[in-house]
Design brief:
Blueprint lengths: L1 E9 L2 E6 L4 H4 L3 H5 L9 E8 L2 E9 L9 H15 L3 E6 L2 E9 L2 E6 L3 E8 L2 E7 L3 E6 L8 H9 L10 E8 L2 E8 L4 E3 L3 H13 L5 E5 L5 E7 L2 E7 L1 E9 L3
Parallel strand pairs: 2-3, 4-5, 10-11, 12-14
Antiparallel strand pairs: 1-2, 1-17, 3-4, 5-6, 6-7, 7-16, 8-9, 9-10, 11-12, 12-13, 14-15, 15-16
Length: 255
Amino acid sequence: MKIKFFKIEGTGNDFVLPLNVEPEKILKFIPFLCDRKRGIGADGVLFSLEDKNYDFRMLYFNADGSRAEFCANGARCLIYHNYLKTGEREFKFIADDGEHEGRVVRDNLVMLKMVDPEKIKEVSINGEKFTLINSGVPHLIEETHNLEDVPVFEKGRYLRFHEMFEPEGTNVDFIKIEGDKIFIRTYERGVEDEVLSCGTGAVASAFYAKLKSNFKKFEVHTRGGDVLYVEFNEKGTFLTGPVNLVFEGLIDLKF
């Protein structure tokens, strides 16, 4: 069966968006769709579904096929997709972690209202200090002055599967803070590797930096070179950055 799809990315966080197909029919193919050697290649798979109470309902699956509560860059990509589809710029939608709002600010710049992050706890592992923050999904954050020297895959994988965070595990962010600028590298659970960008990681890291400073707006510089903007104000928590439709195509899935 041939499935039409979009390949879409937000600051290097890339996704496959199957069109006109029920999620249940292709869930078993998600690891194949995300395979960068044999499939399309992506960090995850997005679904934009009809919902009588919202403009759309978002489902998100990691590259390994596991379902995640939310993906901020993925949500921004779905907002942009629905903008291209309808011509509307503002959307209210529902995801597994709750209600969200989003807007296409201009061209391909998309703003997302996040669930307000919260600090869960400070933890110590092997004598090192970390902060666990929930920004829709859990993120374990370590501040460092030597970001380029961090073995993100090895250390991130160890922390992601640490017994302290069982059974679901956690995402892991290594960050360097310079005033209102944050430089970030993220090991993402479900992808099980370092990613070029992570929207919930950007928000969690900005919230961590906010707790230590008087800044309320942050530039988060991703591993892929793009910049995400995080702002905290009286209306909530907002994540803004570019989105691009990379290509569209057909893929034959052997049912």
